[in-house]
Model the fold of this input.
Amino acid sequence: MILNKKDIVGGAARAAYRLHTGLQNAGIDSSMLVMDKSSNDINVICSSFSKYEKFLYNFRSDLDKLPLIFYPNRKTEMFSPSFSSEPVLKRIMEIQPDIIHLHWIPRGFMRIEDLGKINRPIVWSLHDMWPFTGGCHYDGDCGYYKNGCGNCPILNSGKKNDLSSRIFNKKKSIYGKLNNFTIIGLSKWMADCARKSKLFRDEQVITLPNGINTNIYKPIDKLFSRDIFNLPMNKKLILFGAMDSTSEKRKGYKYLIEALMSFELKDVELVIFGASKPKSKVITKFKQHFIGNVHDDIALAILYSAADVVVVPSVQENLSNVIMESLACGTPVVGFDIGGNSDMIKDRLTGYLAKPLEPQDLASGIQWVLENENRLNQLSINSRNIVLERFSIEKVTQQYIKLYENMMEIK
Done:
């Protein structure tokens, strides 16, 4: 059974659902337990069944944030106490699955305490750093998770025994009681962070990526794709996007804008998805097209195919869905050489890895990709090939099945 707060909305949800469908296609009896269901998949089960449970559902995420009111000077980065919980444990006991595969579970979906009550092998895919921190989802390079949280920079607490310390110690107590527990770093970087963390350094940590359906995410005729989104036919198009792409600081929109201010190529325009057009005008040298939120896989594949290059200027990134989806569609990617980006962006083979947080080098990378048509065509071929070789859902699913089988053999 796969557990994730949502089934198809959000990066972790889409990755978890792809694995769910991949397992089903491979003949595995897979079900998915979620708090918020958007698909019509009968094998996706909502944790809330009764009217009372559904009533509480609307308040769980807000209830979970209540401890944060004691930190009025905290930063805007996401921090999840996860004190509130859906009736997840009850559903697990009713279904009695052979194995539990956790994905993204905070924000009112599942409490850490519930893990200690599950008498099943547990796999946990790390979509961010939250499972081994005191509450933050990305640590902003503070590194406190390596020895023990407290005096949290995100909470701006100034105290060693703050909320992050209490959450960290609670996790430590629960994890220490788990048997047959495997941690999956979706990228080499995330696996390495987990191994260095105080909470997971004594656990089994392996690296296994997400997979992608390469029959959906594939190259589509560029002119057709641009026509669908009403984009110009005769321009070089740079695509940037993510959930809350222009407002989430970690996604690095400001670095992209700085890079484009020093850009030298002409006939270039910027396409942004995951955000609406801002009320205040953002000054760039190029025209911007705001697409808004795009959740449908086919629409996303068309959008990636419409672009000449995708830019992922994130400050911290795990195994980016945007990068994998773009490469699968044959569109090269430029990003900083941080986090898990190098697992997919092979410098000057599938795109360009810029020096971390250097907008000028980001600009150089974008220009390098776009300035030569023959080079762009070869990058496109390489991009598609690396996904077929390493990230197709069929190949990745078989690796997960082997892991499950090995864990179920452990008595």
